[in-house]
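Note to self: the last two entries modelled the partners one at a time, which told us nothing about the interface. This time every component goes in together.
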Amino acid sequence: MRTNLSVEEALEAVLALATGEPAVEEVALRDALGRVLAQDLAALADHPSADDSAVDGYACRVADTLGASPEAPVRLRLIGEAPAGRPFAGEVGPGEAVAIYTGAPIPRGADGVVRVEDTRREGEYVLLLAPASPKDIRPQGDDLRRGEVYLRQGDLLTPGRLGLAAAMGYPRLPVYARPRVGILSTGDEVVEPGEALPPGGVYNSNAYSLLGLVREAGGEAVLLGKVDDRPEALLRRLEEALPLDLILTSGGVSMGAYDVVRQVLEERGEVVFWRVRQQPGGPLLLARLGGVPLLGLPGNPVSAMVTFFLYGRPFLFRLLRRTEPPYLRMEAEVETPFKGAKGKTVFRRGVLRYQGGWRVASTGNQSSAVLRSMAFGNALVVVPPDQDLSPGAWAEVIPAPMALLGLPF
Ligand code: AMP
Ligand code: MG
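The predicted structure of the combined assembly is written out below.
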């Protein structure tokens, strides 16, 4: 068992266990938002499907319209119209024009369009006050070419990409099955909201903050409830829940006599590492139980969320072959002091906002038991080992509005 890892070493060890290949399933476009594409997709058709008009106006032969101006209009005979979706069947000859609308194919014979603003209709004729131009013709395949790959394996299906998949002609999409992530809370003192709170009891908040983070990262949260600090109960509950792609436990990984998660995994599983040089979340444990990776998250509500965000989320991204990184980094100017710690990377909770530049302020009480810092913060402020940050300093910040504020996937 390794111990006292750096944040980077711990992440590497976690990702090394993300070796599973999720199953692939097909879902209808309407159900695909937030899912992850399992294959590269090539366009099934050109878009536009033919050379078409980018404007409402008149399609005609450019050569007929050279020199047209308000003072010297050119008069063309109207031979028909081409609304979008109803192409004009005939051919445009010399001295002729077809009324055309945005998105309609350019009729044979025509090689330019005059915008309707530059024309005047006179019964069977149209007066052109400007010359026709080919620049308002969108060439076939200008946006999408049949056979070309525009969406890739691992792409998150965002609204724009759902629209793109539809434009490419796909009614259904191959996506990865959501990895099943078991969430088990430990602690004699932990009770479900709605139950009577005994003296010294605490409501099980970890199950629900983790459920949100798991879903937002593309996983299926499998709530396993809570177990008392008893090794047999813990082991039984976990074994009954298999198969899972990842197990999250919260609590029971510190130094106390009742910290049974570590005991059980040392005896019955395989502990990869315990303890990371970070705060919050220092007691984090990585193990395997029956071949399933297990993150033993510390019980404090902030520690559980921060460690899942820093390690569990990248694990799920790796399993799902996500093309985007699990989190971004940026720099912001610090507005309030942020305390660091000796030999540890500290992740403080901040409110990041743009005001002439990116600035970040503390959410207030930074205790890892104060969940409000996660509920109302929108960023983690990274304080390097052995440093304190003073107002005016620049800090590395991990903005995480989607994950921390929750996107309803
Ligand atoms: P532990 O890591 O088990 O030593 O727990 C650390 C702190 O987190 C203790 O104050 C626990 O009561 C609290 N805690 C543990 N599990 C949960 C939970 N599921 N929800 C809220 N608080 C918890
Ligand atoms: Mg405990």
